[in-house]
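Methods — Computational structure assignment.
A single polypeptide chain was analysed. Its primary sequence is given first, followed by the predicted tertiary structure written as structure tokens.
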Amino acid sequence: MRTFKDSNPIAVTLYFLFVTGITMFLFDPILNGISFLGALIFSLVCGDGRDNKKHLLCLVLFVATALINPLVSHNGVTVLFFINDNPITLESLLYGCSNAFMLVSVLYWFSCFSCLMDSDKLLYVFGSFSPKAALVFSMALRYIPLFGDRSKKIRATQKTMGLYKDGNILDMIRGRVREFSIMTTWALEKGIITADSMSARGYGQGRRTRFTNFRFYLCDVILLILSSVLAVFVIMSAVKHDFVFYPAIVAPKMSLISVIGYVSYGVLVLIPTINEWKEEIRWRYLRSKI
């Protein structure tokens, strides 16, 4: 059985570059909505969607991003209501919602990417191009969970020492600042030690060898070709039409090319989810034969 996580890291990385690149640079509310649904479904399927705090944070970020734009930008001809003599327009509100979908979708996709790619895979992908950049990127991803665990230990130690007082906001702020200072010093020290250790072992000099040898299989080639072809269809269809928000909303006429582009992007964002469902059905079928 071969899930999306077991695919070659280069194929997975290029897939996420296609999906997130289209979401960020082709500003189309329909594409943003498709990207959001695909990212949310895959987040739930791959197991990362069980983190309710992450969903709550994305919801708060979506609402804040959607509401900030109509509050600061009053362009548009369709006035909904006034706040302190400032018009809140429909065009500005929809523009903010489209931005919010784009931002939250990219966050979900990067969250899924971090679940699929470990430090060894990142070194495999980026090590051939820039070993130093690969090392920095790998260290940054590794220090995120370490930073959280060490922060909890420092906070518990300070509470044991009596440096925190219950109900004292100023004391809590001083403690958090002190905790952040300790964590920053620790992270810089660990980074310097790791960099010196890797340099002493000859990292980045000469031809590199890898602990894990990731091979290209037929399914990886199919993933690369399919992702590239679908991405080209989406880009070509997006060039043919443009969605205008200001001064009035002008949606492009739906044509065969635009439909092909939207369908292609829908298939593109659902590739990992379909693959996971296929492997799950196959696994249950094989178990039923035992």
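Note: The mean pLDDT is 78.
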